Amino acid sequence: MPKVKVALVQMSCTSSKEENLQKAIDKARDAAAKGAQIVCFQELFTSLYFCNEENHDNFSIAETIPGPSSNILSALAKELGVVIIASLFEKRAQGLYHNTTVVMDADGTNMGKYRKMHIPDDPSFYEKFYFTPGDLGYKVFKTKFATIGILICWDQWYPEAARITSLMGAEILFYPTAIGWATSQDEATNIEQHNAWQTIQRSHAVANAVHVVSVNRVGMEQDGAMKFWGGSFVSNPFGTVLYEASDDKEELHIEELDLSETDRYRTHWPFLRDRRIDSYQPITKRYIDED
C-alpha cells in the first residue's frame, strides 16, 4: 500500500499498570475510529519509567510474551483491524529480562518481537540493571499495511541499527522511547539534548530514505526529578518534520505517510547505490587504534 496512516500515542503514566494499559486501549480505539492503521505506543507504557533506580522489587512488573498484556493487545488489534506496536518489560525466564517490543498484525496475529539491542546505564536510566541486551538481531515485520522496523529508545542514537533495519526492507522506522530532562538542568542543556535527539533520528531518515516515527512519553516522574519531554514526531524520508508533539501534554496524532517517497528520494539521492561496502570492515571494531 503506497499510503498508510500511523498513530502516535504520547501519554503520561501512573504507578497502576491496569490504568496505563486501559488508557492505551482507549487511545487505540480513538485512533482506529479516526482512520489509523498502525498504532504505536511509547516505551514501557504500562508503567512508570522504573529504571531511575536499581530496585529488585521492580522485576515484578515484568511479564511473559505472549502474556497478559500482549494477549489483550492482540485481541484489540483484531477487533479494530489495526497493527499495534507495544513496548513491554519481558520476563523471558527466571532471572532473565528484556526490554521488548511486540508487533500485532491487524488480524491479531503476534508477528514476533524485537528485543532492545543497546542498553544504557546513566543517572536515572539504569537499564543495564534490568535488561539483558537483545539477542534476536534487528527485525522487520511485514504487516498488513507496511513493512516496519522497530528500534527502541537508546537504539536511536546508533546509525548502524537504523541502516541494518532499513537494508532488511523496513519502509518505516518506529522508535518507542522514554527520554526526559532532569528538572535540575538549565534550559540551554534541555534544548541541546532535545535537538540532538531529534536530529540523529532525522538523519536516519535521510541516510536511508525511510519515514521515522518516534513516540516518547510525557509528564513528571520520579517525584518531580524527571520531566519526560514528549516531542513525539514524524520525519519524512528526507528529514522534514511532518509533525511534532508538545513537550508537556498527552497527544494522539495520526499522520498519513506516502511510502512511495522512499523510491523517489533514493533515486534522486542515491546513497544506497554509492555505498562502498568493500570499505566498511573497520566498523566491526570497537575502536581503531593507530599503528
Tell me briefly what this model is.
With 291 residues, this protein is of the alpha/beta class. It is built from 5 helices and 15 strands. Helix 3 packs parallel to helix 4.
Task: Sum up the structure in keywords.
291 residues, Nitrilase/N-carbamoyl-D-aminoacid amidohydrolase, six-stranded mixed β-sheet, 5 helices, 15 strands, 24% helix
Overall form: globular
Name the helicity range.
Answer: 10-25%
User: Within the largest sheet, what's the order of strands?
Assistant: 5-4-3-2-1-15
CATH architectural category: 4-Layer Sandwich
End-to-end distance, in Å? 52 Å
Q: What number of structural domains do the residues give?
A: 1
Q: What structural category arises from helix and sheet content?
A: alpha/beta
Q: How many H/I helices? A: 5
In round numbers, the mean pLDDT is: 97
Question: The CATH topology is what?
Answer: Nitrilase/N-carbamoyl-D-aminoacid amidohydrolase
| Beta strand count | 15
Element string (H = helix, E = strand): EHEHEEEEEHEEHEEEEEEH
Question: Hey, roughly how much beta strand do the residues contain?
Answer: 25-35%
Uncertain runs: none
What about the largest sheet?
6 strands, mixed
Assign the CATH class: Alpha Beta
Which value, in Å, is the CA radius of gyration? 18 Å
